[in-house]
Amino acid sequence: MTGETPKRVDMEKIVSLCRRRGFIFPSSEIYGGLSSCWDYGPLGVELKRNIKEAWWQAEVQQRDDVVGLDTSILMHPRVWEASGHIKGFADPLVECKRCHLRWRADDLNSDKCPTCGGELTEPRQFNLMFKTFMGPVEEKASTIYLRPETAQGMFVNFQNVTNTTRKKLPFGIAQIGKSFRNEITTGNFVFRSREFEQMEIEFFVKPGTDEEWFNYWTEERLNWYVKLGIKKENLKLRPHTRDELAHYARACYDIDYLFPMGWAELEGIANRGDFDLVQHASLSGKTIDYFDDETKERFVPYIIEPSAGVDRSLLAFLCDAYDEEPDKEEIRVVLRFHPGIAPIKVAVLPLSRKEQPVALAREIYADLRQQWSVTYDIAQSIGRRYRRQDEIGTPFCVTVDFQSLEDNQVTIRERDTMNQIRVPISELKTTLQAKLKGEELFVLPPGGKIWKEER
Ligand code: ATP
């Protein structure tokens, strides 16, 4: 949000770290991979769950004006007629007459093929929805689509939700789920893939209050990223110009993030007016509206929609957290994740392989695991084990040594500062709890001391 040019990380480094440490693998890799599809590994799945959980907590659990929903991926085909997707969810496709590669015309800044310089065909509209067939007969009448967004499931359930929850305006419906788009050009790792996850809110308001709520949600969503540790200078708001606005939108802001390839959309916030509910009422023949008890008015609500991508957020959290520090002759690679996002919260590391410290370490590990995702590592030197945890963003390491057997104390080592502190085992959980909440790091307990890790 400032004029300076912030530091950008190399995408290659992120891709290589993700693969090496088990965050993200290419899909169906043993068969040569499947273009633009990705598998989340043991650490990736934890990171992704934490992002979705943080979103759900902030936007559903901690609010009394938003309820959740989980709708099906396959929907009645008329949904996509009403939404305008069958007619209009298309990108202009051009093909090289020489090498036959296909491109999105609006992504190109020349009229020759970027790969071989060949002549391109005239653009034709290419619909991005994946088609499939419902039931055993593969014919036009049984054609259905994989949803290209989660939003429509919420619009068509508007009346079900108001009837069953008795929610009064303004209120919202939230959903997290998979969406599918047969994108012409994919790439930039998980930034643009053909199968991805979205976190969307449809917030229903009285017409006339829509601008105020549009601004409210823009600020709320921007701050969600900042509270979870994304640097402000790597975020910016970009209003859509008149020409860019989607057919349903009255106004739209993109939250752009400074990805390794440059500024690009992380989330879109749109004022959709009454377009969606009016369309679904018209095509389904059902009444979809809202009765205001106080004013005795009946009207169709307007909708404000913050629509975020789980995979793009995950990529932004990874890029933002990535840091390198000189460390003797080597480089210390650290993912400085916010503790709430970090895939593993604590690593328990015994300093000796002898029976007694190992038994104590395993006891501590079993206890901490009741509360957090915790790992246990006994292999290699302690320095190497710390570096392995730094590289995956584990905020705290707990080491158990021979002295622990006598004084019932363990050492907590902090990822970012590499400071270490000795705490009684009886206070370990409460100390970690406070630290993981991001409360004052390293408050000294009576008699405790802080020292720097030997480097
Ligand atoms: P773009 O202009 O980058 O194609 P869009 O404007 O079509 O994106 P929306 O329809 O607004 O995207 O979707 C909302 C969010 O869903 C996006 O901000 C993004 O985070 C995510 N998203 C959309 N398409 C993809 C994709 N192909 N891969 C990963 N995430 C996506």
- Helicity level: 25-40%
- Number of helices in the DSSP assignment: 13
Determine the oligomeric state from the structure.
Answer: single chain
- Total domains, how many? 2
Return the average pLDDT rounded to an integer: 92
Per CATH, the architecture of the largest domain is 2-Layer Sandwich
Structural class: alpha+beta
Q: Could you tell me the radius of gyration in angstroms?
A: 26 Å
CATH topology of the largest domain: BirA Bifunctional Protein, domain 2
- Number of DSSP E strands: 24
Proportion of residues in β-strands:
25-35%
Give the secondary structure arrangement, pairings included:
Blueprint: H1 11-21, E1 24-26, E2 38-40, H2 42-61, E3 66-68, H3 77-83, H4 85-88, E4 90-95, E5 102-104, E6 124-127, E7 131-133, E8 143-145, H5 151-155, H6 158-165, E9 171-180, E10 195-205, H7 210-227, E11 235-239, E12 251-259, E13 262-273, H8 275-284, E14 290-292, E15 297-299, E16 302-309, H9 310-321, E17 322-327, E18 330-335, E19 346-350, H10 355-368, E20 374-376, H11 382-392, E21 396-400, H12 402-407, E22 409-414, E23 419-424, H13 428-436, E24 450-452
Parallel strand pairs: 3-9, 19-20, 19-21
Antiparallel strand pairs: 1-2, 4-5, 4-6, 7-8, 9-10, 10-16, 11-12, 12-13, 13-16, 14-15, 17-18, 21-22, 22-23, 23-24
The protein binds adenosine-5'-triphosphate.
